[in-house]
Amino acid sequence: MSYLKNITSPTLLLNEQICRKNIESMAAKAHRQGKELVPHFKTAQSHKVGEWTKEYGIRQITVSSIKMAEYFCNNGWENIHIAFPFNPLEVHKLNALAASQSISVQLINEAVTETLATNLSSTVGFFIEIDAGYGRTGVEVSDFGLIESILRIANKSDKLQFKGFYIHPGHTYYTEDKHKIYDESISALSMLKTKYSTEYPNLKTRVGDTPGCAAVDDFGDVDQIGPGNFVFYDMMQVNLGSCKIDEVAVALAVPVVDIKKDKKEILIHGGGVHLAKDVLLEPDGSKNFGEIVFLDENGWVIPLQRSYVKSISQEHGLIKASDELLSKVKVGDLLGILPIHSCMTADCMKRYMSLDGNWVDHTESGTSNLYDKI
Questions:
Q1: Where does the D-serine dehydratase-like domain lie (predicted)?
Q2: Rama region for 310: left / alpha / beta (φ>0; ψ in -120 to 50; rest)
Q3: Domain of 289: which CATH number?
């Protein structure tokens, strides 16, 4: 029986074949340059996708919260890195995790470093996050006083071990010149490695974001790359040139509940609680909340004529429909939506349906089973 027969409400579909190709491609790129791929799992948040990545030589992962680290703990990962300035209120949770799992955190100030140095009962690694130049978070690359103060405090504890420097150049999402941003980030990491490698000969440098890692072909002497969104991609990444539309590995299946052919509009059950509210702008200034595809037993097919979700509310979505779409769809059919931002859509939906009709786990699904039968 087709997986489509099991869908009656908004359901996030995961195409394993596309996802695996995306993982394989990024892993091969890292391997060609002698870099270690340490993917950021804030996108997939799935044990099953994690098992796929292991098949391509991936041994370490990055997460964005201690809750996500708990989900992946003790599943064969050599290390789990929490890539968010560490929240000192969670030090006791960190101790519990570090008792059985190699884990590392991100530090950007003396206060949290002091808290960890004083309260850790198990060994924890740490990266110093460096501001990539757009001011979201991190230590200024030239603030050697703060860098050395963090290192000095950490050295007071035998439980807090320096692993290296981390940069997330997230402003690649907002500029066309991704190579310039990466040149700056790679140069910053190279300078820091040169300055501190005598004292810390095993330190690693890591750079990571999907648009940059997809576009750049030379990562210099950086040791590790850490993109996340590449496992699924999405319409934002298509728009940025990171991937092609047929490399997007997830689609939200939604029921059609009304059609107004005179207005060229289709009403769907699928809104902000399913897609989130990330948006792209069309050339005419209208909003695009997701690209429409036709669903079939093998996944989805990209139409010859574009249609997209032009507005959403909590549960409703309104499609600006092409003539092709209007001629093929009827009330009660299912359509697919390629999300603008797959990370947020996955977080909203909390699990995936594979194309063989099984549920695939997600951190928020409340289960650690890799596959759950419908």
A1: 249-356
A2: alpha
A3: 2.40.37.20
Give the pTM. 0.94
**Structural domain ending residue among the three candidates 186, 203, 231:** 231
CB atoms within 10 A of CB 111: 10
Which pLDDT band, with edges at 50, 70 and 90, does 374 fall under? very low
Q: For residue 328, what are the domain limits?
A: 3-12+243-373
Domain boundary among 164, 199, 231: 231
Task: Answer whether 341's CB lies under 8 Å from 236's CB.
Answer: yes
The residues, any chain, with a CB within 8 Å of residue 347's CB and separated by 6 or more, are 45, 276, 364
Instruction: Give pLDDT tens digits for 103-121.
Output: 999 999 999 999 999 999 9
The pLDDT mean for the chain works out to: 94
Query: What sign does the CA torsion over 12, 18, 23, 29 have?
Result: negative
Is residue 308 predicted with pLDDT exceeding 50?
yes
| Residue 144: inside a domain | yes
pLDDT score of 18 more than 80: yes
Tokens coding 270: 């699928």
How far apart are the C-alpha atoms of 169 and 185, rounded to whole Å? 7
